[in-house]
Amino acid sequence: MDFNMKKLASDAGIFFTRAVQFTEEKFGQAEKTELDAHFENLLARADSTKNWTERILRQTEVLLQPNPSARVEEFLYEKLDRKVPSRVTNGELLAQYMAEAASELGPGTPYGKTLIKVSEAEKRLGAAERDFIHTASLSFLTPLRNFLEGDWKTISKERRLLQNRRLDLDACKARLKKAKAAEAKATLWNDEVDKAEQELRVAQTEFDRQAEVTRLLLEGISSTHVNHLRCLHEFVKSQTTYYAQCYRHMLDLQKQLGSSQGTIFPGTFVGTTEPASPPLSSTSPTTTAATMPVAPTGAGLAPPEETALCLEEVAPPASGTRKARVLYDYEAADSSELALLADELITVYSLPGMDPDWLIGERGNKKGKVPVTYLELLS
User: Fold this and answer.
1) Are strands 345-349 and 366-371 parallel, antiparallel or unpaired?
2) Fold match between 31-264 and 322-378?
3) What's the CA gap between 288 and 358, in Å, rounded?
4) Which residues contact 80 (CB under 8 A, 6 or more apart)?
């Protein structure tokens, strides 16, 4: 017991002495051994890596789980090393409500049938979101956490040891300086100077050894960047897959609703009044179609009989023409299409057998096919 108490007292004394010495260095009242420029650069690079990794990690967690209460719950389960309970996504919950509403309001009615179709699509979207969250957590969040909770803690520990070794080294330098000054005044024996020199050599050796260990760990940050780069590619891949699945599900739903809209609302147009998604850029859809097409981009998607359609011979139906406001600029892919400018008003109508993603548009004496997703149909 006495030994432990003495050790605690000794450690407390050393800690206090180092704290005083560190404070004196800050105020320029004590000399400080400086690290070389390369070492300082490694330290700054490591600190930046840690700070930005924390920020990216936290914001990615917000992206995957916007609910702060749910994030806190998941954090507590992880700290307790317990499995996080399965939680339905917002899309799956919406799908459940829609299905229950259809059952109560009448699954055979037009509204009930549509609720069922939309609920099935929302359920698929929810499942896709769940898969994305799981994949992104494993491939991206987990490696970032492992770095912060593993490698970075090791680096921080060795840096603290290096700081202590440097403080000890400077303390020995100060004692040797005082011993030599006292020797010059003939108030100390030579063995006191020898003792101070021996302590300085030991402190210098320990400092150099710890500096090398810390330097090697800091240089390992480059490997960390390589690993995080690979994880970032995996994250982008999983996010691309997720959005592609969402697009396919919503496009299927749009076609299902479009095919039944004419039956439910006779005399109206096939298509939607709002686009499934806006263009990814101001360029022609033919440019963006390679990644995520937002609208049909050529006659190749239209039925063969429509491709051979002679626009000069097309006449609007006796009833059913409609005004539409253009949502985005659209560059015609060929002479059968009509170029569009955002916010302009055009007249549109559908013809029997046309692809439901397209309408015939007229502006003055100009006429051509236009994509439905670029239009807001007006009542």
Assistant:
1) unpaired
2) no
3) 18
4) none
Matching CATH number, 322-378, of 2.30.30.40, 2.60.120.10, 1.10.10.10, 3.90.1170.40: 2.30.30.40
Quote helix, strand, coil % in the chain, to nearest 5.
Answer: 65, 5, 25
Look-up of token digits 């009542």: 379
* Residue 339 per-residue DSSP state: -
As a residue count, the chain comes to 379
For domain 31-264, give the CATH superfamily. Arfaptin homology (AH) domain/BAR domain (1.20.1270.60)
Residues 6+ apart with CB under 8 A from 100: none
SS3 call for 345: strand
Whether the Cβ atoms of residue 164 and residue 206 lie closer than 8 Å to each other = no
CB 221 within 8 A of CB 208: no
pLDDT confidence band for 308 (50 / 70 / 90) = very low
Among 247, 243, 329, 341, which Cα is nearest to 283's?
A: 329
**CB–CB of 133/86 below 8 Å?**
no
Closest CA to 254 of 158, 346, 327, 356: 356
pLDDT tens digits, 245-304: 999 999 999 888 876 655 555 444 444 444 444 444 444 443 333 334 444 444 344 444
Cβ–Cβ under 8 Å, residues 285 and 294: yes
Q: In what order do the strands lie in the sheet with 375-377?
A: 366-371, 358-363, 345-349, 322-326, 375-377
